[in-house]
Amino acid sequence: MYRNLVMGKIQLKFNSRTIHGGQAPDEAYGAVMPPIYQTSTYAQSTPGGHKGYEYSRSANPTRTALENSLASIENGNYGLAFGSGLAAIDAVIKLLSPGDEVISTSDLYGGSYRIFKKIFEKFGIVFHFVGMQDTGEIAKHISSKTKLIWVETPTNPMMNIIDIMSVSQLARKHRILLAVDNTFATPYLQLPLDLGADIVMHSATKYLGGHSDVVLGALVVRDKELADQLYFIQNASGAVCGPMDSFLVLRGIKTLHVRMQRHCENGRAVAEYLVNHPKIEKVFWPGFPEHPNHEVAKSQMKDFGGMISFVPKGGNYQDAIKIVEKLQLFTLAESLGGVESLAGHPASMTHASIPKEEREKSGVVDALIRLSVGIEDKEDLIEDLRQAIE
Ligand SMILES: C=C(NCc1c(COP(=O)(O)O)cnc(C)c1O)C(=O)O
């Protein structure tokens, strides 16, 4: 049970669990960092006579250390690691059967929309995309066929906030699984399992890895039966991550708490600069009291993160492109959550797989710019934005 991780007689708090959670010095030589077991197979003294590992798709000691760490930081009992965030999502949807229905937030990562619509609809899974800022809207779409509610909060890229506890109460009432993509917030800011979710998912490519040097996905659950179903899918489908990537995310997690503090501090400074800028039309950041669900954000988040989206005044496609091309410290690139600040143009990059009329319904207009505010000096970040927007 990783929730109550104890070292000796000390019940560890979150920051300590990012460093020690799920890990102990290696039994062989006392290595403090879990070794990278770069092996696909393990000697057996007789068929089945192994030391708990027989083939690295099924289990690998470095991946096990990462899965234990993931369970520990999300207050779960079981962690699972995959080759990417979308591979983790793939595993969750494979819990379902043809004819089952999923209610998903209508503002979500473009790749998540794509795997739902372009991959799993072909196998008979029905997806409804709903504005989830009001839990009542979700309830209107529940039927006897609804088996999963898929939440991102904050959402990518409109920064909508969804009330996890409220949605979990609705899901539980109808015996529907609730999965929360916790990529933008991370467990430093938000603990979906504590708020009633059944499954937490991460693109660990982002804040958990934290250095833009690995692609990896994660799931964390508390229920053993659900964990066993997901471990079966993980092994049977085989979309696992390797030991080197597992090591990189293990190392990233160790500084998650200090990095998130700086992401939040810099995020606030950038959001406040933009919202007071005469050439900026609208800024989307859950830390503003004017944010539609700011009170929900305050109730379920420790702080408001480093992800921000904004629209330049009178903005169109060209205005947005001109700004992102002029940025020098913010790097124009896909992805988010690394130590370096990144800028993106969702309409033509991360959300290009969503049809224009569909994405514009949730506010992803051609002029929208998304920022992943890193941990550089905030004065430099603001100067970069000033010269790009002027
Ligand atoms: C690459 C980007 N997003 C990946 C992502 C994913 C997919 O994770 P991958 O590790 O890229 O497969 C899932 N959920 C959220 C909220 C995400 O943001 C991006 O938004 O730039």
UniProtKB/TrEMBL annotation:
Keyword annotations of the record: Lyase, Pyridoxal phosphate
Keyword Metal-binding: no
InterPro entries cross-referenced by the UniProt entry: Cys/Met-Metab_PyrdxlP-dep_enz (IPR000277), Cys_met_metab_PP (IPR054542), PyrdxlP-dep_Trfase (IPR015424), PyrdxlP-dep_Trfase_major (IPR015421), PyrdxlP-dep_Trfase_small (IPR015422)
SUPFAM superfamilies the UniProt entry points to: PLP-dependent transferases
GO cellular component: cytoplasm
GO MF annotations, alphabetized: cystathionine gamma-lyase activity; cystathionine gamma-synthase activity; pyridoxal phosphate binding
Cofactor: pyridoxal 5'-phosphate
One GO-annotated biological process of the protein: cysteine biosynthetic process via cystathionine
Protein name: Cystathionine beta-lyase
